[in-house]
Amino acid sequence: MSLGRLWTALKGHTNKSLEDAADSQALTILDQQIREAKKEIQLCGQSLHSIAAKRKMAQNKIESYNADIDKYSQSAAQHAETNRELALECAQRVGEIENLKASEQKILDSYMKNEGSLKSNLVTAKNNLRMLEQQVDQVKATQAVQKAQVAASTHFEGGNSKVKTALDSLERIKQKQAEREAALDASAELAEIETGADLDNKLRQAGGSAGGGSSEDMLAKILAGKK
């Protein structure tokens, strides 16, 4: 391999390693960001409760101001003919309360606006967080499955290698046994030749005799000797 190809291969391997490390770090960073987002959402929820409580208090004040305005307005109308001075005091009080109510209404409007905006942002943040968690969980699950598949594939390949090695050994053993059997057969043939057994076998196969004939031959030989 040329130096250029070697450098390219090493560079590609390095880049892949860096990418793998970055991906692994990215999941860790995402987990940390998710935890921080949950804390922020919790704090936003607490702020929302606080604003809602203040908004409720402002509403109660305005309701109280309205009740006082009604009361002093009725008193002013009631005493307008009989006690004008008292009626004027009641009317002045109505004016003061209306000013207080107007100021409180501005505060209430601000609370309601902030509460609505915070609610909307909180819903959006929760939805985004839920989607992010689902995607991260999916990536982690896929990663775990792929790791299991790689591990299973590695074990399977290793098992296949062991089986192949065992089959190769079995074939060698069978070959050695066949060679040994052939050698034993050759030794037996040589022994027959040396002892003459091979020739006797050949004569028997040809119908001759190497040390004895049939019963008729033996009887004829005996009778011929007695004549």
From TrEMBL:
Signal peptide: none annotated. Keywords: Coiled coil. Belongs to the PspA/Vipp/IM30 family. Residues 115-142 form a coiled coil. Pfam families: PspA_IM30. It comes from Glaciecola punicea ACAM 611. Residues 197-227 are annotated as: Disordered. This is Phage shock protein A. InterPro entries: PspA_VIPP1. It comes from the Bacteria.
